[in-house]
Amino acid sequence: MMQYFKLAFTNLMHRKVRSYLTMIGIFIGIAAVVALVSLSQGLKLAVAQQFSSVGGDKILVRAAGTSYGPPGTGAVGSLTKHDLELIGNVNGVEIATGRMIRYVILEYRKELKYSFVATVPDTDEKARNLVIEANQLTTDRGRMLLPSDRNKIVVGDDYATRNAFKENMRVGDKVLLNNVDFEVVGILKRSGSPQTDMLLIMNEKTLRDLLDVPDTYDIIAAKIEAGKKPSDVVDEISRAMRMDRNQKLGDEDFTVQSAEELYKSYASILDVIQIFLVGIAGISLIVGGIGIMNTMYTAVLERTKEIGIMKAVGAKTSDILTIFLLESGMLGLVGGAIGIAIGFGLSKSVELIAVQALGTSLLKADTSPFLIFGALLFSFGIGSISGLFPALQASKLEPVDALRYE
Amino acid sequence: MIWEYFKLALTNLSHRRMRSYLTMIGIFIGIAAVVALVSLGQGLQQYISEEFSKIGTDKIIIMPGKGLLAPGTTLSTQLTKQDVETVQRVSGIDSAGGTVFGSVKISGKDKAIYSYAISIPETDFRATFFEMGTLEVGSGRLLEKGESGKIMIGADYVRRNLLKQQIKIGDKIKINDQEFRVVGVMKPIGNPSDDSSVYLNEQDARDLFNAPERFDYIYAKTAAGEDPLVVADAVERAMRRERNVEKGKEDFSVQTFNQLIESFNIVFGIVQAVVLGIAAISLLVGGIGIMNTMYTAVLERTKEIGIMKAIGAKNTDVLLIFLIESGLLGTVGGAIGIAIGMGLGKLVEIGAAQALGTALLRAYFPLYLIVGTLLFSFIVGSVSGLFPALQAARLPPVEALKKKY
Hints:
A: 406 residues, alpha+beta, 2 domains, 13 helices, B: six-stranded mixed beta barrel, 17% strand
């Protein structure tokens, strides 16, 4: 077997330019595919991490018709304090918390910006801790809000480090929210997700007073009791709310989803984009494969006489087939290896640029062994398949005809 | 003379038929992908530009907040009836009107869906509003001013049976649990969001949303001969004064439709560039395939080149022969690729129309796309062939003749 490899290698080195060009054809495609897959896998991983920090034991309830845009915009039905109580009493729910997520005008040193503000509960200590823990709200500088704080906010990291405004905010700064004075008491630890890093956090009571919204919630989150199945509790909550609202199945004006379902719906969108982009990049692999096929047909033609001699001195049909298949497989494999290296280089640079320029850690290059071996195997496969027809042609040559070939 | 070169190139290419075909396949796959993607992208862009220009480039749109956002019930700033009056008074404005809309529950006998209810002005602006939205009834009739408890529904309620029941003119359906009588079904507009909306008179909408004053968008038509940009500026100034806000602190935004089209085109252009860039990788690989084929050809025909030079061929002659050969590979590959790409684009268009009921994905083949792609594939061929051809042209005749092939 080693002999075959040596022979393939020697033959490839004899026509250096052609082998190099053929390999370039393969590695460009592999590099593109590897870079795209690695980035989108990384993105999926980052999203999964964010969800797992929320925890698989959480259930989210939202008003139906929450179409595009943030929760609460343009929703039909609304969630109220009554719903929160109802959900908290459903069998299997350990604790339920409600949050408001709204859009406000933030003014800092005469500059205006529209920002999202999310609330933390201020009456129920356990609910408050759950929200803080599940959303990983920890402050980097300053302090977290106290339940008794009024007109104080904690701001996302972008406001303090990334020049969301012309000047960076500091703890203690005064800002205006919808023209009301607020004090910045803390800055959130950088999360890497643009949404969180641009968020404002305040106590529920403060926002209710500011916007004059006494009763509604935009999202209600429930934590499941240990040992319960999320899907069962989701059903329980739906049933309880339908009964309360006197609605038929399929006619609800709210949606209940476990965190896992929510993650799956995100992941499936990412999958579609990934398949589309990788599919387009994959076209170049087909073209590269055709390049290998071309090179191998040429090789067979050039070495017709050689094949005749090999057969005349006793080489079997399968020997010739192996020689040519190995040769094309090696073209694919080596091209693939170089392509993987370049592809990872590309995705790493995109990651660096994303961190530097956009301040997001969502675009991470995934460099799992699975991807590396998969890509190597794949490129070897492309090489062998592309070489199959030329190799078959070579192996079936009649020795006498081949010897006569000029 | 040049004709001779072409004949020679063709003969040479057909001598190694298999190799030429494979090289061309390498090119046409890439070209087909690029042509299909560009044609669909261009079609989409054109469709949307058309939609915008139907609305009219003499129109101005005023939105609350800083531009296109989800229609905002929770937005703390709102546009109001007062703002419409302010806009109307600005010189250079022909007429102005607003719409209020929101997500609603629409229920039939057995099924309820969530979609948008959009209000129609009950002022003189009504006709302009219909015209801007390309709102025409397919069956039944248009809503009259002042009618209450009646609606027009998007085409998808009939065409795609959104409520899982046959809806006829005169039927009643519920919107947020209030009954409305259907007086008209709109003609299909082509995008699923518009075709599943319901349209009702402004007063009904205000009652439904409990929004006596609010407008979500305000539209204005500029008077004939006025520059929309200048008028938009005047509108912005008037509204700042009215709302008593400083420049740069506006809680609303005023845009002409031309500006909207431009900002859309920028975003769309970026997406298209990324997708095309990825597709173009296969063209690069195809070009390398041509280079490879040509290097091989030069190697095989070393002796031939020697003979040509010995009987008087100049370097440029040899260069031309090989360049034409590789250019032909590229052009023919490109031509086949264009045909396949156009086929693909059309297939996607038909597939999208059938499966999704959207007219958004239309394949569009402007002449410049076809000519440009042909030219491009010729260039890919020639550039790829350049180095091999130069190598061939520079072969010293004596050396070349000595080679055994």
